[in-house]
Amino acid sequence: MPLSIQDIIDNASLRTRLLSGAEGTQRTLRWAHVCELADPSEWLGEGDLLMTTGIGIPRQAAQQRDYLVRLAEAKVAGLMIGENMQAPADIGALNEQAALLGFPVLLTDYSVPFSAVTKAILDARDQVEDQRRRAVVRLYESARIGLRRLGLNGLLLRLSADVMASLYLFDTRTLNPWEEGLAGLPQSWLQVLGKRPQPISDLARCHDGEQEALVMALPALPDCGILASGGPLLDYGIVHHIASLLTIELERVQGENERQLRLGSELIDDLIHLRLPEKAADERLEQLDCCARQAHLVLARPQGSLPGRWQLELGRQRQKMLARQVGDELVMILAEHAATPLLQSVLGCSIGVSAPLGSGLRVPEALREARLALAHATASRPLVDYANALDESFWLPGDLAQARSLYRRVLGNLVDYDEQNGGQLIQTLRVFLEQNRSWQKSSQILNIHKQTLIYRIRRIEEITGRSLDSTEGVIILWIALRSMDIAGAGQAPPGP
Question: Organism's domain of life (predicted)?
Answer without folding.
Answer: Bacteria
